[in-house]
Amino acid sequence: MEISTLATYHCLAFVWYFFVTYSITHVRTGERPSEVFLYGGQWKYLTVLNLVLQAVFYGVSFLADVLRLIKKLRCAKRVISSRDLLFSVLAFPMSTFVSLSFWTLYAYDRELLYPKSLDGVIPLWLNHAV
Q1: Do the domain assignments include residue 118?
Q2: What region does 41 belong to: left with phi over 0, alpha with psi -120 to 50, or beta?
């Protein structure tokens, strides 16, 4: 795949994850059930932390692609190696665990993870994007 196409993809993925992270952290606070976000707010949930990690990963990937496009090879090698380390150690294992565990438990018993009281607070598209 060409570097410019890859840079475009990484930029769009970064913007998407940034938008979803912004959307989930700015859910209307007045309508939230108080027992759901007690102690630590949304930052205690692994799904929100995973969104932030994905945004950081795609931001680093986009930076690596831009550095490769402008021929800054010394800087690009360091950023690429840190991107690969970030992906293999944190981003891929965490996103796999979060999605598999969430949807398995959601299919088993929805009330364990996502009570029906949250349907009016968090839109359906945002739940699936997370």
Answers
A1: yes
A2: left
- Tokens standing for residue 45: 């949930």
Q: Please say whether the dihedral angle defined by the alpha carbons of residues 55, 60, 65 and 67, taken in this order, is positive or negative.
A: positive
Amino acid at 60: V
For residue 123, how far is the Cα from the chain centroid? 17
Q: From first to last of the 130 residues of the chain, give the pLDDT tens digit.
A: 788 899 999 999 999 999 998 888 877 655 555 555 566 667 778 888 999 999 999 999 999 999 988 887 778 889 999 999 999 999 999 999 999 998 899 899 888 888 887 777 787 888 878 7
What total of structural domains would you count in the chain? 1
Taking every pair of Cα atoms in the chain, the longest distance, rounded to a whole number of angstroms, is 52
Domain housing 73: 5-26+42-128
| Residue 19 placed within a domain | yes
Q: Is the dihedral of CA 92, 95, 100, 101 positive or negative?
A: positive
* pTM recorded for the entire structure: 0.83
